[in-house]
Amino acid sequence: MLFHVSVDVDYAGLGDRRDAILRQEWEKTRDLIAAGVILGAWRKANGRGVIEVWDCLSNEALKNLLTSLPLSPWLQNIDIEPLTEHPLFPGGRLGTN
User: Fold this and answer.
1) Is 21 in contact with 71 (CB distance < 8 Å)?
2) What pLDDT score was predicted for residue 94?
3) Which partner for 70 in 24, 33, 38, 41 could form a disulfide, CB atoms 3.0-4.6 Å apart?
4) Domain 2-85, CATH homologous superfamily name and number
5) Could you read off the pLDDT of 43-76 as tens digits, one per residue?
6) Rounded CA gap, 53 and 42, in Å?
C-alpha cells in the first residue's frame, strides 16, 4: 500500500549530534530506497522537513519503520495519507492513457 508521508524535523533539537544523526538517517534512507520502501522524496521548500511516498504492507509496518529511523525522536507534525490509484491515471502515471 502506498502512503504519502509528510513530516517536519526539529533540526535545532539535534544539537551537536546533528551531523552524526543525519548521516545515520541517510544510511537508513538509502536502505529503504534500495528495498523499494521509499519511492520518492522531496524536501519541503520551507526547509523544515520532507514529503515522501512509502510502499508498506500496512499502517503498522509503516509506523514500525518510521519509529526505527534515527531522526524519529525529532519528527514533528507527522501527516500520513494512504493513497489509492486514480481512475484517470492507472499506476499513477500521467499521459499513459
Assistant:
1) yes
2) 67
3) 24
4) Dimeric alpha+beta barrel (3.30.70.1060)
5) 999 889 999 999 999 999 999 999 999 999 999 9
6) 9
